[in-house]
Write a structure and sequence with these properties.
The structure holds 2 protein chains of 2 kinds. By secondary structure, chain A is mainly α. Chain A has 13 helices and no strands. The mean pLDDT of chain A is 85. Chain B is of the alpha+beta class. Chain B contains 15 helices and 19 strands. In chain B, strands 1, 8, 9, 10, 11, 12, 13, 14, 15, 16 and 17 form an 11-stranded mixed sheet that branches. The radius of gyration of chain B is 27 Å and the shape is globular. Classes of the chains: A mainly alpha, B alpha+beta. At the A-B interface, helix 2, helix 3, helix 5, helix 7 and helix 9 of A face helix 1, helix 5, strand 10, helix 6 and helix 12 of B.
């Protein structure tokens, strides 16, 4: 186990190096530079040059990259050109928002996805199987932004049950930032009204984002479950008179979950990506919107910072998934 | 069934049931009431970048800084002339090179320190040192000297008739010299002022939750009339349809993101108002006469294009009729405009004849545009269609904004869509920026137009203060650039804004687009 962790950490360094060089090149190959925001609509050449020099954009690319890399190894993600604030600060403001949304969406997806997947497999080709599969196909094929807008129309515009945007009503004071998760921070602050309000804001974006993941999990669990149900051990168990429920829950589910966990874990990364669309539709102040604006504004340090943080998250999630599989599947321990 | 399996299956279903229950409870909790009368909430489409008056060149950001700072002179309500602000009076020397301002005593910054001549000096020295966009407006300034606590003297290198007007712009906001203490690595306090305000205006920025909102609250040391609005919130609502829904529910009082096609529907909803005023923002067509297709070097070809354009159709389609066709480069409402100037009309026969006269056939031009303005896609297609009727093929080049800007700067395009709005109320904002051959590219002359006679006229007009002589020179130059069709002079836009009818006292000044006079606004 320790060896696994050590190997992964070594890989992390290589991945970060690769990611940083590729992103750096891609960002700088795009025509256009970040002077737009700073120089105004009709800058003189002198102003453009002076601003480029202030941000070191006049230096050759390799020199810019090396200086970035040396800062990175000192834990410094640089200063955002658009906001003039350290990128690390910006990440601390935006990343928890995305992570909170994605985690809640993930919980929703797992809470409903696994039971539904199991149910569909056990009752294969029954009416409930068809309903579940229909529901799952919807999640995979309905565009996220469309689903989100329909939800806003129903639950905000027509029924008035839920807010349409943001993390918290603007009239309520944001909680003191401890974890960056509003759900937890409002609890720490003991502000019940804000806590309920935060949850209300989470419902629609989490459902919209979670639905896609849920559909994915249902399909995955259903197929691995069907696999497990056709295995010899299951049939033998049945032949020996063991209960269907007992076999499904005790043996088949456990075995079906191992491949599912790997795939669900990896898809956590795609949730982070899907969050970009969700954040746009629901005005969720997360990384997705931040990085879109950064790319459009050619804010190089911010783009790099985002990529590095996401890459880091991916590697860590991968490691966690492997550790989970390791604890579930005795074969991997050999 | 064993105990373990039963526990496991009930745990799984309990997890699902609990998740569903929590969501149900959350949904059924009571919703919040409408906003209070002393709080104004403005819905804006995107978060802001940074707020240093010595660095920002974006009206969107000025909506925060403008009410937080005061300037030596201020725009006069809805008019584009200037009146005393922090300065109670000023004198201009006979040679027009020395401006002496006397400050009104008693003005205080948001930390209680007095606004003095030293603060004015600090502000402008800092701005010039930072050398970002705003510094471009003060290239004429040679020195800023303090002469007594309340007297400050500006010396100019050359006569600059627009100088007084630039002082009323956002970059003229006087900054508290205590900002110097916030300096990090020689940045003159830029990182600090990027997300703080330090002025003597009626409001102070008290909170900025990135991606969510910015909050202004009253400056308790403000010496003017106490504003009615205690709090002004700028809430980020990216999606236009969400803004419309929130406006309808009174969750926001002003919706900046309403798009051209939505205004009519928004106006019909109960409780909403749509303000519609002529602005000085113009929408034009750059015709690259130096670096573009060689045919564009010939003024006859550019004239042909100007005749081929369907101005009425463009205005009807892209602005739902809320715009006026331009009469040359200077918009209506700005002095210096020639009311008798020649105006192109749509005449396809004439366009064809002119192309034949120029000996041009099978002309094919690239039209560069970005998605920066929501109406540009429709506009580009219309122009393609208009020019096709005259026998010119137009290839649409939709390009991402930052890239398009680089191409405009380099001149690597034939035709390109652009908007322009003046920074100060002076015709030089149009004439000198657009036509001076030293100003190629982003700096302003985006048609890469060059005519020595025009250069001479506009440079002369920019260096004298006699408005009559300036007007005469500008009119002469206008006649030439209209005849030579240096740009496609499309239309002057109206400024439309959707707000709740309960919002009172908003005054639109064409020099201050997107900026609200929050200190004198209220809610019924």
């Amino acid at each position: 186990m320790l060896r696994l962790i050590r190997a992964r950490l070594a890989m992390l360094v290589i991945v970060l190096f690769g990611v940083s060089i590729i992103t750096f090149l891609m960002a700088h190959v795009l025509p256009g530079d970040p002077t737009t925001a700073l120089a105004g609509p009709h800058p003189s050449q002198e102003t453009l040059n002076s601003i480029r020099a202030q941000f070191g954009l006049d230096k050759p690319l390799p020199a810019q990259y090396l200086s970035y890399l040396s800062d990175l190894f000192h834990g410094d993600l640089g200063t955002s050109i658009r906001s003039q604030q350290p990128v690390t600060h910006e990440m601390l403001a935006f990343f928890p928002a995305t992570l909170e949304l994605v985690l809640v969406a993930f919980i929703v997806a797992i809470a409903f996805g696994i039971p539904l997947g199991v149910l569909a497999a056990v009752k294969k080709n029954s009416f409930s199987d068809y309903i579940i599969r229909f529901f799952a196909v919807g999640g995979v094929s309905v565009p996220l932004f469309w689903g989100g807008l329909v939800m806003i129309l129903i639950f905000y515009a027509k029924l008035g049950w839920l807010p349409s945007s943001g993390r918290l009503d603007i009239e309520l004071n944001s909680p003191e930032s401890v974890t960056g998760f509003y759900t937890i921070d409002t609890l720490i602050a003991g502000d019940k009204e804000a806590f309920i309000n935060v949850l209300k804001h989470l419902v629609m974006p989490a459902l919209a984002l979670g639905y896609v993941q849920l559909a994915f999990i249902v399909r995955q669990v259903r197929s691995s479950m069907l696999d497990a149900l056709s295995q010899d051990y299951y049939l033998t168990g049945r032949a020996n008179g063991l209960g269907k429920r007992f076999l499904v829950v005790r043996y088949a589910l456990r075995n079906a979950l191992i491949p599912s966990i790997t795939i669900i874990g990896l898809s956590f990364g795609s949730l982070l990506g899907g969050a970009v669309v969700t954040e746009t539709v629901f005005d969720w102040p997360g990384m997705g919107k931040y990085v879109t604006d950064s790319i459009l504004g050619r804010d190089f340090p911010a783009i790099m910072g985002f990529t590095v943080v996401i890459a880091l998250a991916y590697v860590i999630i991968n490691l966690l998934v492997d550790l989970l599989v390791y604890s579930l599947d005795p074969q991997t321990r050999k | 069934m064993t105990q373990a399996s039963r526990t496991r299956i009930s745990a799984l279903s309990a997890f699902a049931v609990i998740t569903a229950l929590v969501m149900g409870m959350v949904v059924s909790a009571p919703a919040n009431a409408a906003t209070s009368k002393t709080t104004l909430i403005v819905g804006m489409s995107a978060d802001l970048d940074f707020l240093d008056p010595a660095a920002t060149m974006d009206n969107a950001q000025w909506k925060i800084t403008y009410p937080c700072y005061q300037r030596l002179v201020e725009y006069n309500g809805a008019n584009t002339d200037v009146v005393p602000g922090l300065a109670s009076s000023w004198t201009i020397s006979a040679d027009n090179l020395t401006y002496t301002f006397t400050l009104k005593p008693g003005n205080k910054f948001s930390d209680g320190t007095a606004v003095t001549a030293k603060a004015v000096q600090y502000t402008f020295q800092r701005l010039l040192k930072i050398a970002k966009g705003p510094a471009d407006n003060f290239t004429a300034v040679a020195s800023v000297k303090v002469s007594g606590t309340n007297t400050v003297v500006f010396t100019l290198k050359q006569v600059s008739p627009q100088f007084l007007y630039t002082l009323a712009g956002n970059y003229g906001g006087i900054v508290n010299p205590t900002v110097a203490a916030e300096e990090v690595a020689g940045d003159s306090g830029q990182a600090y002022l990027a997300n703080h305000t330090a002025g003597s205006g009626a409001y102070v920025l008290t909170d900025w939750k990135k991606g969510q909102y910015l909050k202004l609250e009253q400056n308790k040391y403000f010496s003017g009339t106490k504003p009615v609005l205690k709090t002004v919130l700028f809430k980020i609502v990216g999606d236009a349809s969400s803004q419309r829904l929130q406006l309808g529910k009174g969750e926001i009082d002003i919706a900046e993101g309403i798009t051209s096609d939505q205004f009519d529907a928004v106006a019909k909803e109960a409780g909403n108002t749509v303000m519609n005023k002529p602005s000085l923002t113009v929408d034009i067509l750059y015709m690259n006469s130096t670096k573009g297709n060689a045919a564009l070097k010939d003024k006859v070809v550019r004239q042909a294009i100007s005749y081929a354009l369907d101005y009425k159709g463009l205005i009807a389609t892209t602005q739902a009729g809320n715009a006026t066709q331009m009469r040359g480069p200077i918009p209506n409402g700005m002095w210096g405009q020639d009311p008798k100037a020649f105006q192109y009309t749509t005449n396809v026969t004439k366009a064809k004849a002119l192309l034949a006269q120029a000996g041009v056939s099978n002309l094919s031009l690239d039209l560069l545009y970005s998605a920066r303005q929501p109406w540009w896609a429709a506009e580009a297609q219309l122009i393609q269609d208009n020019l096709a009727k005259a026998g010119i093929t137009v290839n649409l080049k939709l390009t991402e904004y930052a890239t398009a800007r680089q191409m405009i700067d380099a001149g690597t395009f034939d035709l390109c869509l652009g908007v322009w709005s003046p920074d100060y109320a002076d015709p030089s904002m149009f004439m000198n920026f657009w036509f001076d051959s030293n100003n190629f590219g982003l700096a302003g002359n985006r048609s890469f137009y060059s005519n020595p006679e025009v250069d001479k006229l506009i440079r002369y007009a920019a260096k004298i203060t006699d408005q009559k002589k300036r007007t005469a020179a500008y009119i002469k130059a206008q006649t030439i650039v209209i005849d030579e069709a240096a740009y496609g002079y499309l239309y002057q836009k109206n400024y439309r804004l959707a707000l709740r009818s309960s919002v009172k006292g908003y005054v639109f000044n064409p020099m201050l687009e997107q900026i609200y006079n929050v200190a004198t606004m209220s809610k019924a």
